[in-house]
Design brief:
The protein is an alpha/beta fold and 126 residues long. It has helices at residues 59-67, 88-95, 97-100; strands spanning 11-21, 24-33, 41-45, 71-75, 106-110, 116-118. Strand 3, helix 1 and strand 4 form a beta-alpha-beta unit. The longest helix is centred in the middle third of the chain and has 9 residues, at 59-67.
Length: 126
Amino acid sequence: MAISTRTTYAIDIEDVEYLRHGDKPLLARLFKPRGSGPFPLIVELHGGAWCRGDRLNDSGLNEALAKNGVVVAALDFRMPPDAPYPASWPTSTTESAGVRRRPQRGAVVRTGSVPRAVPVARTRPC
């Protein structure tokens, strides 16, 4: 019988501004495990049909991921009435550019009614 040696981590949570459109900041909530790492990264795009919700939607899931050694960046993105769909897509692909530069280390994930992992190399709608 195998014995699990899974490590759980204390975590730090902070909000940071990652992008600004005019006078409107866009925030990311970072869930970071404490430790020397390296840790994989997930960029989480919340559900809400591109017109509802915010970076706080999936905090429980994101905290659990961080406690298990995954850094999560949960992002706000532009939404109606300021930016009706598809204007939110350019924002959400812009902030994930850092992940796309190192695809072996991260993923972009969208949650909601149609959750899916967005391939790191292709983040435009099909």
